[in-house]
Write a structure and sequence with these properties.
CATH class: Alpha Beta
Radius of gyration: 18 Å
Structural class: alpha/beta
CATH topology: Rossmann fold
Largest sheet: 7 strands, parallel
Strand order of the largest sheet: 3-2-1-4-5-6-9
Number of domains: 1
Order of helices and strands: EHEHEHEHEHEEHHEHEHH
Number of helices: 10
Helix content: 40-55%
CATH architecture: 3-Layer(aba) Sandwich
Oligomer: single chain
CATH superfamily: NAD(P)-binding Rossmann-like Domain
């Protein structure tokens, strides 16, 4: 996968990793469709991408609203352009314990992270198949690999993405649809500020671990290199990624650590 001259749709492009990936790819003179909820922020990102030599289109939508997602897909599909890459970075995190979180908050997290993401994918996939394939990337998390305190619904929604998109990959090998699951560790973005608390409101605080995480720009460079290589799983982060391997090879140690680690 080479980005130059390609048509790439990036969701969650108004901030964080999505914004950084859009700016990184824009250096390759691609056509970028940029989506997110914040139209003003998207316009600012689009202007920076244009200065890098890429053309852009802004299509705002809300992942938590199925009609909004489908309307955005219709706008793109009506243009009859080949979608070479659909890179999905939109999502929302969580900061609350299972015992204090109402089911409606769990549902909201799933609506954004899982159902919104697959609704867009299901809308674009037939067109991608019809046009000889393409690349789909979806953003999980290291807690999509294991459970973690204060992240129950968030972790579960990311686990669900792994199962769904691994199935999609297996079903569409013959259709030349390549799937990458991006698995970030602690990256310094606004994810903890926007995470939902037990009341379904923004957490509004920068986690200490998040604040010490890798920069979004550094992360984007790593992700883009691995997207070009069409890696099936893209682990990116710092020392925190060791938890993925501890869970895989030393589960007894993971169980011990997970019940004692500071969740923020």
């Amino acid at each position: 996968m080479k980005f130059t001259g390609k048509n790439i749709w990036i969701t969650g492009a108004s901030s964080g990793i999505g914004e950084a990936v859009a700016l990184e790819i824009s250096k390759h003179k691609a056509f970028l469709i940029l989506s997110g909820r914040n139209e003003k922020a998207l316009k600012e990102v689009a202007e920076r991408c244009q200065k890098n030599g890429s053309s852009t289109q802004i299509i705002p939508f809300d992942l938590s609203n199925e009609n909004s997602v489908l309307e955005a897909a219709d706008k793109v599909l009506s243009q009859k352009i080949k979608i070479d890459g659909l890179y999905q970075f939109g999502g929302i995190s969580q900061r609350s314990f299972v015992s204090e979180t109402p089911l409606e908050v769990d549902r909201k997290i799933f609506e954004v992270n899982f159902f919104g993401t697959i609704a867009l994918t299901k809308s674009i996939l037939p067109w991608m198949i019809e046009n000889d394939g393409g690349q789909i990337a979806v953003t999980s998390s290291i807690v999509g690999k294991f459970g973690f305190p204060y992240r129950s619904a968030y972790s579960a929604s990311k686990h669900a993405l792994h199962g769904y998109f691994e199935s999609l990959r297996a079903e569409n090998l013959q259709n030349n649809v390549r799937v990458s699951v991006i698995i970030p560790g602690r990256i310094k973005t606004n994810v903890s500020l926007n995470a939902l608390n037990k009341n379904g409101n923004p957490h509004g605080q920068m986690d200490e671990g998040q604040d010490k995480g890798k920069s979004a720009d550094w992360t984007a460079r790593k992700i883009c290199r691995k997207l070009e290589k069409e890696r099936k799983e893209i682990l990116v982060g710092g020392f925190d990624l060791i938890m993925v391997y501890i869970r895989r090879f030393f589960p007894f140690l993971y169980y011990y650590m997970a019940s004692r680690v500071k969740p923020l």
